[in-house]
Design brief:
It is built from 6 helices and 10 strands. It has an 8-stranded parallel beta barrel. About 35% of the residues lie in helices and about 20% in strands. With about 210 residues, it is α/β, with parallel strands linked by helices.
Amino acid sequence: MKTLIKICGLTTQESVDVAVQSGADLIGFVFAKTSPRCISPEQARQLSEPIPEQVKTTAVMLHPSDTEVQEVFDEFPADYLQTDAEDFASLNLPEGCRPLKVYRDLPGFDPSDIDPHVLSLFEGKNSGVGELVNTSRAMEVARHAPIILAGGLNPKNVASLLQAVQPQGVDVSSGVESELGVKDVQKIRDFINIVQDYEWDHELSLIHIYEP
């Protein structure tokens, strides 16, 4: 099964183009005002114009109000709205948009809280700060539901985390930056290439296991 690759917090056309050309499946634009990667809905619309239909866009927000969501989607109709799972109880999703619910690696978190039939995102307590989740807990969550693993991933550790956790997808932001909020296009390429190499090696190992 293909590992989904989400590159998040993009702010320049070059980084968007490199992510798409290298094989990203999802592109995330951040609208949380406290983030160094925050852009305007107008900027997101412009940056996303060259993105092909098969690559999905994500509006990344943090505890937004309905008004804030509408302001973003009036200008930038993303494929997904990403925010904490509990936020969706008070939000009206724009037409054509799917939820990408964020569950956080907090003490007492119960994996059974995640819908096993819907793709969700699992990450650390705080977004965009390179905070790695507890691997054992991530493994338990990934066994229960299809998740995109986020938080603290980078080109150096993503292969080992894929091997250990086996999530549906991986999400990277600060792990492919040269400095806070500034994406490094070579790191984006490296991250995607490593995930794709892992998929290839994993498929080969399965063939060897199941060949008569």
